[in-house]
Amino acid sequence: MPTRSTPDSFEAGAFLPEHGTRRIAGTLRIDGGMVNFAGDDAFLAFPLEGVQVTMGGASDRLVFFAHTSFPKASIFTSDQAILSHPAFAQNPALVRARDRIRRRKLVSRCITFGILTLLVAAIAGVWLAKDPMVRAVARQVPVEWEQKLGDTAFTQVSLGRKLVTDAVVRKQFEQLAAPLLAAVPQDRYQFKLHLVEDASFNAFALPGGNVVFHTGLLLAADTPEEVLGVFAHEISHVTQQHGVRGIVQGLGLYAIVTTFFGDASGLAAILVDHAPFLLTQKFSRDHEREADEQGFRYLEAAKLNPRGIITFFEKLRREEAKLREKLPGGDALDALEFLSTHPATPERTARLEKLLARSPRKDGFTVVDLNFKEFQSALRAKLSQPDKAKKPDAKQAK
Ligand SMILES: [Zn+2]
Q: Is 2.30.29 the CATH classification of the domain at 9-110?
């Protein structure tokens, strides 16, 4: 029995009263004003006059033929090409049935498309909302946890390192930082400054407010604005919670969404586990950009010239070029640790230049009231190895 569809004959099935619920396979032909079904051991024919055509089966994929004169009998085919059979264009009842079926298919296609569109929009929405959600989750973290996390990490960093504790030097440094810190909202964080004796150009911040400067960076700067520019950038990593946000982001979308809609108490254990991770964490490019821009705003609010961070990046770039010339290979760039996490790309300085050009304060910045060279000499005098460039022994730049 051939069951393959041809333009005139369609692969079909039928239910016949004498065969109960058994489905009989066969072919369907429309000719001589009849819908004819021929199966292995069964034959059925409905007159086209009075035939009822409906859709049915799973996902409405089958076209059913029935007739009031043949109760409990039906013929069906999954080959929808049958709707294009000339009989469907000639008989008004079939034309109506065909149009009804096509309309119904169109509606169901629109619904499927609508659902898919909604689904895609929902996924895109969650994806777009990821960063705001991460931010909101980070905001739920009590500041005490952040401080504990940062203090734990700082204890690990400072192990075996020499801190500059001289009262005069520290007082001068605090005096330098005072106008900037006064412009930073202190409602959540209290900043703790640390000077680590290390010849590499580096500075980094930890969650909760510990900010660490290597003496190498302070001595390499030409102006107090350069130090303050780096400082404002590091403070911004703290206020924007980049450390905590980095950890939360790493948890994955599912955990972020459930923490966002649930409570953040489960985060405590996760954060504690991540304290060592903070020391090797590299901020994302987005977080660096955010810290550049927020730092710029803090400097602007403090009436400090943000050009300092630009000239500092340029200085790093020149130093890098010099070192690369002297020592091709790159290992010697350890001395420029800050550069490894803060690439001084032309794009970065260009963005800062643009902010500066647009700044309403433009050139109305105050001159820092501190003899910077004097501060540097006092600092240099307090170093345990003032003449020897100490090679940095760990990488924990932020
Ligand atoms: Zn940074």
A: yes
